[in-house]
Amino acid sequence: MILDRGQGALVWDVEGREYIDGTCGLWQCPVGHGRPELAAAASAQIGRLEFYSSFGDYSNEPSIRLADRLLNLAPAGLERVFFTNGGSEGNETAIKLARLAHRNNGEPERNIVLARVGGYHGMGSGSLAATGIDRLREGFGPLMPGIEFLGKPHGVVHGPGATDVLIAELEERIARIGPERIAAFIGEPVLGVGGMVPPPADYWPRVQEILRRHGILLILDEIVTAFGRTGHWFAAEHFGVEPDMIVVAKGLSSGYIPMGAVLIGHRVLDLADGASFLHGFTYNGHPVGAAVSLANLDIIEREGLLDRAKLLGDRLLTALKPLEELDHVLEVRGVGLMLGVEFASGDAAAVQSGARAEGVIVRASGTNIVLSPPLVISEEQLDTLARVLIRQVRAAG
Ligand code: PLP
Question: Per DSSP, which regions of 85-154 are E strands?
Fold first, then answer.
């Protein structure tokens, strides 16, 4: 499928066929396609200063303004920003920084990172090592050592008492490894690639409390969830936690330019205590990425897209929920405009291609169909998406 252009929640291929975009490509486009303000922001910045390295003591104004803006929007306790070109780089950065901080605090043996089965953190050496999806890891070993996996925060563990089971596992694992050997816990607030899986509501606050007690840093991978997807600037707000680092990308620039960031909290800075962080990639702190991101955040704010995500997310979840009555559907779930349909049996890939033939783009991820349309999608487009998906899921049984 060769794409040619986009507008709002619609894209067209080179044959001129129109599609409702139910996925934002890979989740990256809260403000929708074809926004002239973002083209103008990029053009103006390229005309002024296209790029200059952020190494040493160099910086640029758009990056400084964006860092300030992000820290103003973020949960309490975050104080610095390290810019990247995308998500994997951000998670590599966060993992390295967690290890460096503990080492500088006189605890070099604190280097293990806890991650979860079903989690996705990227394709780099550390970020793939922390990814708990076997099919993505196969063939690339040995991956970076020092990752310990906890179970998937959902699935077999349902209903009342679910969090107790997950918390007991976490406590048991920390005791077995020894808290003095654990640097950080990395997790997505809601599993994305793993099937749009929200944990029980009290999961994150309880995890945070245990990690704090043991001096373990919490890295929240908000590469999918930040900038409106869950109805908040950050999903950390939705779940009521204040992580030590938040990693973002995708929605930061709505994907118009590759851009990401790691928001770094005071605990990390205290541990690191001014240690020099010999780390960075050529295009970090890109002024064009920063200028576009600032304009993108303006649109999200001006158009009230956080509230819109909640409203439309509820509408889509309500429309799709009856699919659970089908024998071949295990669950329909979601938070904001981030939804998943999980199959007990049946072919998610066939649903993806059937929907595409009807002019709707959805994505098969393992045994799930995952949905994350632009937050600007109209009610009418959303209802069409739901209608087509329901028909295709029924047919896949
Ligand atoms: N973390 C999460 C939760 C993601 O969904 C992704 C990409 O989909 C990544 C990390 C990796 O980001 P990137 O592909 O920009 O390196």
Answer: 112-116, 147-150
Atom of ligand 1 nearest to the CA of 119: 3
CA 98 to ligand 1 centroid distance, Å:
19
192 lines ligand 1 (CB under 6 A): yes
Cα gap 283→255, rounded to integer Å: 16
Where are the strands (E) in 143-257, listed by range? Answer: 147-150, 182-187, 217-221, 245-248
pLDDT in tens, 199-222: 988 999 999 999 999 999 999 999
Ligand 1 contact via 193 beta carbon (within 6 Å): yes
Give the count of alpha carbons within 13 A of 32, CB side only.
Answer: 21
Protein residue with least CA distance to atom 8, ligand 1 = 26
Residue from 24, 92, 224 to probe ligand 1 pocket by mutation (most atoms less than 8 Å from CB): 224
Is the full-model pTM beyond 0.90? yes
Residues paired with residue 361 on neighbouring β-strands, in sequence order: 21
Element (H, E) at 90: helix 87-104
Mean pLDDT (the chain) is: 96
* CA 143–ligand 1 middle distance (angstroms): 18
Domains and CATH numbers, the chain: 3-31+304-395 (3.90.1150.10), 40-301 (3.40.640.10)
Q: Is 381 in the pocket of ligand 1 (CB under 6 A)?
A: no
172-186 confidence digits (pLDDT tens): 999 999 999 999 999
- State if residue 225 touches ligand 1 by the CB under 6 angstroms criterion: no
pLDDT of res. 120: 97
ipTM above 0.85, yes or no: yes
